[in-house]
Amino acid sequence: MATASRHHGHPLRTLLIFLGVIALLYALMFFTNSWTPKLGLDLSGGTTITLTAKSTSGSVDPDSLELARTIIQQRVDSLGVGESEVTTSGGNQIIVAAPNVKSDELNEMVGQTAQLYFRMVYLMEESGVTQSDPATTTDDTGEGTEGEETATAEPTDTGEASATAEASATAEASATASATKSASAKAGPPLPAMPTPVPSPRPTAPAATAPTLEESMAYNPTQRDIDDFDNFVCVDQTTGAAATSPTPDVIDQPLIACDESGYYKYLLGPAVIKGQQVTDAQAGVPQNSVSWVVTLKFNTEGAEAFNSVTTQLATLSTPKNQFGIVLDGKVISAPKVEYAIPGGSAEISGSFTQKTATNLANVLKYGALPLTFDTGTTETVSGKLAGDQLGAGILAGLIGLGLVVLYAIFYYRGLAILVVSSLGIAGLLTYALVVLLGQGMNFALSLPGIAGAIVAIGVTADSFIIYFERIRDESREGRSLRTAIQTGWVRSRKTILVADSVSLLSAVVLFILAIGTVKGFAFTLGLTTLIDIAIVFCFTHPMMTLLGKTKFFGEGHRFSGFEAEHLGAKVPANAQLKGV
């Protein structure tokens, strides 16, 4: 009897401790006010974008692709979407999937994939298009903050004065042209028109020898640059689409670019500072201030370049005292410089909101990619479609659960109560862990994850079948029911552990090697396999031991599932003699 006691221990104590752990998990959910799991893209709706890397050599460096993936992951995470997924594919693609995010918002953050550069502004004026958003026509009048390491700057849509100045310059040029035409008319009949020379194509790649900072700062617009700038309009008046700049975005060449609204156009010089030289950028409200600002820091090389550039810009008038922050051929900001800024730290101030300041800080901090990309397919999963998929997944789970219960009732009769209760406890434990892991580790439940949970129903059912069938084997050998429960457990638990270990190993290998949402399937399968082990050891076996002590189950009542005929056990011969 002592041996039997060691086998089954204290089943009631084990059962109470296990149920207490589950109650503790739900108490934690109560105190954190977390009652629903985080859902993945396919269940909550969201957007998937495919980016394809450009390469002149035909191959993409894997290290550069991985670095780009990391930077894009940081950009997406800055949206507050912790369960987003950024993966590489095919050696030249990055796939971005973010649940609960609209396609426009994700495209705005991820689609800005070109390298980030700081360029000096030479000309700026209105593009000649109608501005639909009244907010973008308002001049920013941000006041600077005193301090050696603080710059005074304004967002892109500032500069009524600069636009006026450029308009005046354009008027003077027009007047000069009119005077020239008048003089030509007095001189005599016009000469036959000469064919217009076709200008040579602008460079589409940087020179083999990069210019020095001084050479880039010494750039002066050519007549061709000025003519192209005058003739360029940011938005095609016919189609309403953004017009193609006459200048390719090349680091050592001038660039004609527009702001993001398409209202202002800029003539910019060669790049003087690279985005990689920005080490940090933060949005915030300084102490004793109510306005949002963006602070940025440069590395040693960038700090020296920034000091040289701002020293020159501070001596110039608008718009030449501005530098354009250019990303993907768009001027995202063009702050003014009032004085030289040494030390590698600066502050951009103006009429920022929290959103605009945060967006600019994110671009400055995460904008420099080692590769450029083409935005490929964009797929949006609507909330309704996601809801339909979730409903279908839950329905499939309920059907699988119902089939297991029906099988248990048909084959194991009264023991079905143990099957149902074990599956119910497993469901409660799984739900609590999925919710808490979503809050603590940003685990998002996807449709493949639900498939993993459905598979786990079968894994748990296998454990029941192994245990119950071992009890039948022990009963056939002539052991009493209580003894068969304990000896059957000792022999079946090894088989259960081996089966669950194989399932767990498969889940781990799949999680390591898989990409995308398949990881969700592997993680959920591994989690539910561990839960199955806990359920069998801490709930099913103790409950079986306690049921074996009751009159209904212990004495083999009809329909209990333990009757001798159903177990396939023979009635001992001595029992038959006793009954004569």
Gist of the model:
The protein is of the alpha+beta class and 580 residues long. The protein has 18 helices and 12 strands.
Walk me through this protein's architecture.
This protein has 580 residues and is an alpha+beta fold. The chain folds into three domains: 229 residues, Multidrug efflux transporter AcrB transmembrane fold, CATH 1.20.1640.10; 69 residues, Alpha-Beta Plaits, CATH 3.30.70.3220; 214 residues, no CATH class. Helix content is 50%, strand content 15%. The protein has 18 helices and twelve strands. A five-stranded mixed beta barrel has the order 4-6-5-10-9, surrounded by four helices. Strands 2-3-1-12 form a four-stranded antiparallel sheet. The chain has a three-stranded antiparallel sheet with strand order 7-8-11.
Output the keywords.
3 domains; disordered N terminus; single chain; Alpha-Beta Plaits; 15% strand; four-stranded antiparallel β-sheet; 580 residues; five-stranded mixed beta barrel; alpha+beta; Multidrug efflux transporter AcrB transmembrane fold; elongated
Write the layout of secondary structure elements.
Layout: H1 2-8, H2 11-31, H3 41-44, E1 46-53, H4 62-77, E2 85-89, E3 93-99, H5 103-110, E4 116-126, H6 160-187, H7 213-217, H8 223-231, E5 255-259, E6 264-274, E7 278-284, E8 292-298, H9 300-313, E9 323-327, E10 330-333, E11 345-352, H10 354-366, E12 373-381, H11 383-412, H12 416-441, H13 447-476, H14 481-513, H15 518-548, H16 551-554, H17 564-567, H18 573-578
Parallel strand pairs: 5-10
Antiparallel strand pairs: 1-3, 1-12, 2-3, 4-6, 4-9, 5-6, 7-8, 8-11, 9-10
